[in-house]
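Hey all, sorry for the wall of text incoming. These are the two entities for the joint prediction.
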Amino acid sequence: MRVGLVCPYAWDVPGGVQQHIGDLAEELLAAGHEVSVLAPCASEEGLPPHVVSAGGAVAVPYNGSVARLSFGPRAASRVRRWIRTGGFDVLHVHEPIAPSLAILACWAAEGPIAATFHTANTRSRAMAVSAGLLRTALEKVNGRIAVSEAARATLVGHLGGDAVLIPNGVAVRRYENSEPWPGWPGDGGVLGFLGRMDEPRKGLGVLLDAFNLLGRSRPGLRLLLAGPGEPAGVLARVDPDLRGRVLTTGRLSEADKVRAYRSVDVFCAPNLGGESFGMVLTEAMAAGAAVLASDIPAFQQVLGWGSAGALFRTGDPAALAHAAAELLDAPGRREALSRAARLAVGRYDWRLVAADVADVYETISPAGSGGVRVRADTGPRLPRAS
Amino acid sequence: MTAALAAAAAALVLTAWYLSWRAGRLDRLHARGDTARVALDAALSRRAAAARALAADLPAEPGRLLGSAAEGAARSSGTERELAESELSRVLRKAAAEPVPGGVPPAALAEVEAAAKRVLMARSFYNNVVAMTREARARRVVRVFRLAGRAPIPEFFEMDDEPPVFPPGRRKVDSR
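and here's what came out:
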């Protein structure tokens, strides 16, 4: 099958949606499909052969942060050219809820279109303002996919209708043979955290408070903080006597990220909520980490209600400290959790998830549907760039 | 005077263009609904066939029940079909919950699981188009100018499509 994937966000800026599309493309290629990804991109240099640039992106404030999107006559004409020359059986757009390549692709194309919705808790105003605009694009979508119950609820609440649930995949084969860094985790015990340090929702504060409680009675205990963000503000929250035992790495390369999960004794996910799915959690599970996570609904589900990772009461440092201490003192239990996690994460393996996505493609493009064409008739369309 | 005439003519042209655009949009929605319905019918037929094949591998009594439920689903039409397909879902779940001495060929189970998943997808997609079409047809501009023409209003397909869950031990040989 020839599949055209449309990414709304700049390919050269790291992000969850971009990674999702990159992994999906690789898995579809491995399964024998032909794939082309259209994405905003500042430069064509270093792009994988199956990624096509739609030109530079502009920063747009969206949903409480800044998204880098392409929208306008120039982008529209590139989308049309890509569709015309692509000869796709199916178009698969992602996050078609902001003015973006995804919306442009829906307008320009006629034929089987699948759409994946990633965002949970979108500010209603952002969606309400453009509801009429969205409708003209969403009418073209034949199959809707949501990556989580939260994303599905958001979609249903704002736009009505329904979507099938196909979770984010995790590239298990990249994680299953990961090795710890030499000498890690060492004897005194290491707690780990991965994620942005300056985003309160990630709950790093809860973990730091717990480390303050634990660190005094455990002289060898260390804390590894991996992820982008300014560490100075974070360290200020740690007991001055314990600061020397907190290691910050900044943003890790993909290869080091895989190893980081293996280099700690207990991997902590203290998120306070607002998490739609928990990619960090499934990655840690695939790497075989012993996971300790807050008991928000999304995490409970991924961790099989405690069978594939320990849970503690969300936002409670004492509960986190207590549960972490128990795990640190029980290597057998950590080993058992690691094994259970690797088993449980199997259902999020991209190999299975991509097969479900391919099922959607088949369902919306019955034999003889003729594939994706550029619309020839009139309609709301941006003027063509010369 | 001429200016007023020109403005009126322009307004008329614009209105006509807008109405034809709305009518075209609605027409394409109806076409998408037809395609989605074909996909749903295909998914339901596939599931009935898979259930019939599985019935042959079950012991006499549960096999007979599943076979007749699959037959009923395949033969029914109209609103009766929604009931018959729901009944098939229920019987499939019951069959999945009952252990079979000696197990069942994994290929038959895998086909039932895959087919049930497809039904879930196809029905969600079909009902989505129906919802959008019905919403579009309820708009005033569509009703006043009869933009829907004589196309029948599409109906939702309501059924219990909860798929069966076969425990791993139910297979004769592990399929992995």
